[in-house]
Amino acid sequence: MTDQDKLRQVRDRIDALDTDILRLVNERGRLAQDVARIKREAGEQADFYRPEREQQVLRRLQGLNQGPLSDETVTRLFREIMSACLALQQPLRIGFLGPEGTFTQAAAIKQFGHEVQLQPLASIDTVFKEVESGDMHYGVVPVENSTEGVVNHTLDCFLNSPLQIVGEVELRIQHHLVSREPSAKTIKRVYSHPQGLAQCRTWLDVNLPTAERVTVSSTAEAARLAASETSAAAIASEAAAEMYDLHLLVEGIEDNSGNTTRFLVIGRQSPPPTGDDKTSLVVSRIDQPGGLVRLLQPLSDHGINMTRLDARPSKQGVWEYAFFIDLLGHADDDRVRGALDAMREQASLFRVLGSYPRVAR
């Protein structure tokens, strides 16, 4: 058998598999439509998006995966399949911190796939308001970066919002120097979001020490400005560069190669437990000596792992603070419920912001 014969056999097998995959994906879509029909006949009005179910499916598939495709690739492929099937049941409207081309948009696509209606919004406050009003089913907002810390504006919005956290997304952030100029040698001004400039500070100090650094509302806005000026560049994503037809002058200029941003998905109701969840709280301590120690002691007493603790002004008095806490487990778990009940007794303010599936990496 010649090499051409061998290739023909392999390609015939690939064609047959593609036919099977197409048939099975469409069968999955028909089953999704059946689910929607059964729910509607039963009078259910809830959203068809089930983040806890999606995470269970993705974790199961990762456990079954034997390669050669990576777990990340399998997750991305099945996320798109689930996104397409969900669109057959109920097209989702997702608000995100815009404009288009931002990392928040990339996080929204990573969480929901491409078969949703993505709406860029002008501010984090607006994302919250649009979800609260029902104009958007869900919203996606940044909450913390692995090198620059928390996004205070997002935390502050939770102080006055009834919304719940329904999911989280982690996105590896890679910054590029982009410009209409053909070379970085002519750059006199660099635009970016404050976080983008901060995350590339050392690179800028070494490579563009005399260039003016200008903060703007987003990395996508930075790319737009760079596209309209000479001798200007932006620190932005590859997607933003493509949107404004900019050259990638230098790729991967972030100071920390593990630079990652965490985003939250906000909605009206948190999902039920999956067995691998996270819970977020906002609390204030009773104003007396040792109040914070007593507030946190129930977590230790019940063997609960606290993964994050941040303080923000509570805006209810001078030098009064609210503490934002992330812990492992679901609020409906017995151990977590016991810890939260004990914490509530020690708190002047106590609210569960949501229990949601831990990110499937």
TrEMBL record:
Give the pathway annotation. Metabolic intermediate biosynthesis; prephenate biosynthesis; prephenate from chorismate: step 1/1; Amino-acid biosynthesis; L-phenylalanine biosynthesis; phenylpyruvate from prephenate: step 1/1
SUPFAM superfamilies from the UniProt entry: ACT-like, Chorismate mutase II, Periplasmic binding protein-like II
Name the Gene Ontology molecular function terms of this record: chorismate mutase activity; prephenate dehydratase activity
Residues with site note (Essential for prephenate dehydratase activity): 261
The protein's matches in Gene3D superfamilies, at most eight in alphabetical order, are given as:
3.30.70.260, Chorismate mutase, Periplasmic binding protein-like II
Its recorded reaction(s) are: prephenate + H(+) = 3-phenylpyruvate + CO2 + H2O; chorismate = prephenate
Q: Per the database record, which ranges form the ACT domain?
A: 280-357
Its EC number is 4.2.1.51, 5.4.99.5
Q: Name one GO cellular component term.
A: cytoplasm
Q: Does the keyword Repressor apply?
A: no
Any coiled-coil regions, as ranges: none
Q: Where is the Prephenate dehydratase domain?
A: 93-268
What region holds the Chorismate mutase domain? Answer: 1-93
Biological process (GO) annotations held by this record are: chorismate metabolic process; L-phenylalanine biosynthetic process
CDD domains recorded: ACT_CM-PDT, PBP2_PDT_1
Location in the cell reads:
Cytoplasm
Q: What is its main location?
A: cytoplasm
Q: Which domain of life is it from?
A: Bacteria
Which Pfam families has this protein been placed in? Answer: ACT, CM_2, PDT
Query: What keywords appear on the UniProt entry?
Result: Amino-acid biosynthesis, Aromatic amino acid biosynthesis, Cytoplasm, Isomerase, Lyase, Multifunctional enzyme, Phenylalanine biosynthesis
The answer on whether this UniProt entry bears the keyword Cytoplasm reads yes
Its annotated function is as follows: Catalyzes the Claisen rearrangement of chorismate to prephenate and the decarboxylation/dehydration of prephenate to phenylpyruvate.
**Protein's recorded name:** Bifunctional chorismate mutase/prephenate dehydratase
